[in-house]
Prior knowledge:
This protein is α+β, with helices and mostly antiparallel strands.
Amino acid sequence: MNNGYIKLHRKLLDNPVVMKSPDHLSVWMYLLLNATHKKRDQLFEGERITLKPGQLITGRKVISKTLNINESKIQRILKTFKIEQQIEQQTNPRCRLISILNWHDYQASEQVSEQQVNNKRTLYNNVKNDKNIYDHQFLEFWDVYPRKISKKKASDKYSKILAKTDHQLIMDSLNAHLKSWNGTAPEFIPHPTTWLNGERWNDVVEEKRPDYKKTKTGLFIAYCIKCGQRCFPNDYQLKGDSCCGTDWVPEKPLINNTSKQDREIIQRLHE
Length: 271
């Protein structure tokens, strides 16, 4: 309970109940400082309960001893806080469970801000450590590679490879592999270290073929990208050129069959 801090908002000065006297303020500060800021288990009346943020288990004797204020006055102040809807409390002969009402109005935003600061600090440290530990060329490779497993092993291997292979050559090849892996389940993509050990940047990568519809006999339905004619090539023919010596496409292309003379007439009409 002695770790961390609480938020002490200036709007506390506008609270006439808390600011009624120095003793009222002291008791209120005691409650704020000793309330839990996150869920935790604790015994109360012989049963284990879960304290929520803004709750604490204490007693007027403990508060009296801590603040050097007599017990009867502590009792009156706590009663006032309850009447004025500052707290709720359940009591037994030995202790009481106190819940600070509107706790989150005073504390939640600060806790969120603290968490954000911690997250940013962690992110900054991770990035800083990455730059210190890993070569910037490897980090470029790692950022692009789709399956991120065994970073340290991959980094060690990459450092050895750079002694005899150009970094840009590896990246160009990797980009070609990425196109061929498009739509591939991650488990079928090799680990980065495996890819590097196999010197896969030297592979001839075939670009992934578009999805073509098939006939009932198993032939592909393809169109010449130049003339738009529909053909039915087999797998071997599909790897070659179309009827016009250009590429095949899976969908009928939009072909402009307007003659040069007609295009000139249309252009003059629009002038």
